[in-house]
Design goal:
By secondary structure, the protein is mostly helical. It is built from three helices and no strands.
């Protein structure tokens, strides 16, 4: 477990905020790309790719946090 993952697993609220903020970013990006003629913000492709992989990483961490919480509940 690397240091970022360990930090985010100990700070559950921060990982939730990061998860939903990246989700909002993708919803906003899809909305501006599909429904608007001109995008609101012109974001380079490299940042989109990085945000996508960050979203996958945060999703993994959130799933692991939920698994840890379920394991703690079962052990009680």
């Amino acid at each position: 477990m690397n240091s970022i993952e360990k930090y985010l697993r100990t700070n559950i609220k921060l990982s939730t905020i990061l998860y939903f903020s990246t989700l909002v970013y993708f919803v906003f990006f899809i909305y501006s790309d599909i429904y608007l003629i001109e995008p609101i913000i012109d974001i380079p492709e490299i940042i989109d790719s990085l945000m996508f992989f960050w979203f996958l990483y945060i999703t993994y961490i959130v799933i692991m946090i939920q698994k840890d919480l379920n394991d703690k509940k079962r052990s009680l």
